[in-house]
Write a structure and sequence with these properties.
Blueprint: E1 8-9, H1 29-50, H2 56-63, H3 67-91, H4 97-117, H5 121-148, H6 155-184, H7 186-207, H8 222-226, H9 229-249, H10 252-259, H11 264-291, H12 296-314, H13 320-348, H14 354-383, H15 387-404, E2 419-420
Helix pairs in contact: 1-5, 1-6, 1-7, 2-3, 3-5, 3-14, 4-5, 4-7, 5-6, 6-7, 6-11, 9-13, 9-14, 9-15, 11-13, 12-13, 12-15, 14-15
Length: 423
Amino acid sequence: MTAGPRGLSQVAPTQTADHTPAATAKTTPRKWMAVATVGVAVFAVTTTEMTPMGLLPSIAGDLHVSEGQAGLSVTLYGVLAGLLAPATTVLTGRIDRRTLLLTILAVFAVGNALSAASHNYALFMVSRFTCGLIHGLMWAIVAGVAIRLVADRDAVRATAVVFSGISLALVLGVPCSAFLGSILGWRWAFALLSALCALTFVLVRLLLPALPSQRSFAFSDLVPLLKSKSVRRALIVTAGVVIGNYSAYTYIAPFLSGARGINDGLIGALLLSYGIAGVAGNFASAALLNRFRTIRPVLAGLTVVMTAGVLLMMIPTYSLLVIALGMAVWGAAYSALPVALQTLVLRVSDKRSGEATTSLYVLVFNCAIAVGALFGGIAIDGGGPRMPMLAGAMFCAASLVAICVIREATETVRPERFIPQDG
């Protein structure tokens, strides 16, 4: 996760790109193709963020650094993506959204090409820095782009299509990158990602209409949110869960190879089981949230299940079945958690400040990925491949304390009442 959070807020009926009232307009096949193209962009960006996690041993060995140092490529990426999300959103508030999306894809094409061409650690980190600079902006605008391409009645479906790119990155992107890296070398994984970003750039240019900016927010809008105890608690829970996940998941490849003796080809298959279970968990989360008036039991239950999945993988065993089961339990629980966390953020904030709250969520989420990767790197360099898993389980368990003191509105949040807000 990485994931990218989906900002939702109440807004008035919008207009589609051809200026037809969205409430009565029909979503044409061409517009659905445009939505699908945005989904491919999400897939490419998310895969770029997570690809090093499945290739750390190869990257570290080839660049002559430790696996902990190689993991800093995830840390740096997350720090930049999180810290710069509010700033880049404010600074680009008046720029056409199609232009921004094209710019993001161009930067990612160049950044991935630099990664593929990296023959030393410094250049590889520069390539990750290049992509991390603009990653947060992607999540600030992509949901708004999707819903402006379709009629109001299709907004939820368009959002689902676009953000299916995240699930597909877990199911296909990362495992395929790991598998390709084990056969051809890790540089080819980044080279193909660069080509995918370039191809998506062309498709966006051909299929998306001009999308002038409709609204923006200022840094001053964040201050009242930061003073809210409920918002702060929601962000703390988000940080705890995400740090726990990425302390372990960033170093899953070294754990599977070093602590469990699994070859590189099977690591890709195990990551695939994580991703498939994650898709199921993503769909199951909505059903869980509809069964409870408050989010606390859902968050607590999912956190316990995720911790159990991580610990299950640490049981001394050479059974691939047990390890695959642990990966699946872990993947299903973690993929369901961001949906619950998003809903929590909506309930504890003023619905009129949805975009500002979302930018804080983006900041915390991505910085937590970076902190998790950092802690995991310290753990693996200091105690071996099992230590990141233990650190992740401890952070997840600790976040249960914060979950127990959460207070949020008990009103059920229905998807049809909210549509993503443009950046």
